[in-house]
Every structure is written in structure tokens, then in C-alpha cells.
Design goal:
Layout: H1 8-30, H2 36-66, H3 68-76, H4 80-89, H5 96-112, H6 119-153, H7 183-198, H8 203-219, H9 225-248, E1 253-255, E2 261-263, H10 269-280
Antiparallel strand pairs: 1-2
Helix pairs in contact: 2-9, 4-8, 5-6, 6-7, 6-9, 6-10, 7-8, 7-9, 8-9
Length: 282
Amino acid sequence: MTTPNANPANANTRWDEAVRANFAAGIGWLLRKPKPAFLQREAVGLPRRLAVIAAIVFAAFWQMALFDGAATRGALMLPKMVAAFFNVVTDFGKSGWFLFPLGAAIVAIALASGPHLTRMTRSVLAAIAVRCLFLVAAIGLPSLFVTIVKRVIGRARPIVGEFDPFTYVPLGWRADYASMPSGHATTAFAAAFAIAALWPRLMPAMFVYALLIAVSRVVVLAHYWSDVVVGGVIGFIGAFLIREYFADRGLVFVMTPAGAIVPKPWPSWRRIKTLARRVTGQ
């Protein structure tokens, strides 16, 4: 017996429509209007944040004068085993370690979710997808910002500039003149903040990871110390602002009566296991 579901053309149409609807829903989440309580909170907190940013910029230039040369000379004198260790560690500061798996997870959820699944299953998939979307935005956007800004600033990397921290070629758009800020440090601190925001118990481990990545960039002579400080601050603040954006719209986070931002509860482990069985057909 032939049924409408057996028609491949109809099935493909429904599948295409489901995928488009899932991506449209994701965009709709991000374009939600912020809640009034958060708008009031932002009006109070914005001047303080601007003051903090100005203090950070001042501190970075102060470091350039005092610590950059000394930190770089110290890196040259480290034992070979220490340098070899940090040469391995530094590769784990690339944004692709986070963005590629998260992006693949979002696409897989968009492809898997559809009207053939129960409402509970779709809600669990949506909860996972929006958290992945938060991580992609919190890590990817600060990293993209730094990728552009560092080439506009045009600060020479330590070896290129013969360890002179004040060697610049602004607007040069060259990789060897892209030292300030450090992209690896930006990614590491953005990832540390974002992951710790979702799983607070992981905060100590994630910030140890971020510090190791930051130190590694100085040890391998890819950056000055001020580069990693500024990169780390941009990553931290960028991820913080993305968390605020999501929380403003009731996504992933909620505001407590005391005004703190905390993550929403994850779906229960029982529901996640049920979801896995349904999606895989087992």
C-alpha cells in the first residue's frame, strides 16, 4: 500500500522544510527583544564597564614599557624541555578545537530535528543546540574581532621586530605584524569564561588552561606579554558580553532575584539517553 510518507519527493520536501525551520528558529532566538529588567541592569552597569576597559588599555601600555622586553628575554633562557612542552601546549589555543565540533553539532541537530520526533525530544535537542550556539558566539566573535584588529594595529612579533616591543606597521595586514592582541589568548580566555559559565565547576580547570595558553605564546616567542594580556581581556570581556546578550533574551541563562546571571538547568540525563536512542533508532 502506498502512503504519502512513502513518496520520496514529499519526504525530501518535509525534511528541507524542517531544516529551514530549525535554522530560522535559531536566528529567531538571537533576535529576541531583551527583557526590560535586563535593559535597566545594562543602563546601570555600562559606565562601570567602560571605565574598566579604559583601565585595562592603560595597564596594557604600561606593561609594554616595563615587562615586555624582560618577559621575552626570560623566555629565551628557559630550558629546552620547558620550551618543548609549551610548543605542544600552544596549539590547543586555536579556535578550531572548539568551533568545528560545536558547529558540526549545531548542523547535526538541525538535520536530525523534525516533526517526526516527539515534542520532548525536540525540546531537548533545542536546549543542546542553543547552548552550542552560545559557545560558538562567545568563542568565535571575540576571536574574529581580534583577527581583524591585530592586523590593523600591525605590531611586529618579537622575532620579526628584533624584540623591540614598539615596532609597528599599522594597516600592514601581515601575519608577522599581527602580534597585538594574541588570538590564542583571546580564544583561550573566551572559551574559559564561556565553558565555566555553563559548567561553573569547570572554572578552575578552564582558567588553568587559559593561563597555560597565554604563557605558551610568550615562551614560543609568538607574542609579547602585553599581547596575551590584552588578548585575554578581550576574550574574557567578549564572552561576558555574549553571555549578557543571551541572558537578556532568556536564552541559556536566567537572572536571579539578586541580579546574578546563572545557567539554566540542563535536560536530565534520562532525557538525554532517551533522545540518543530515538535519534539513532536503537
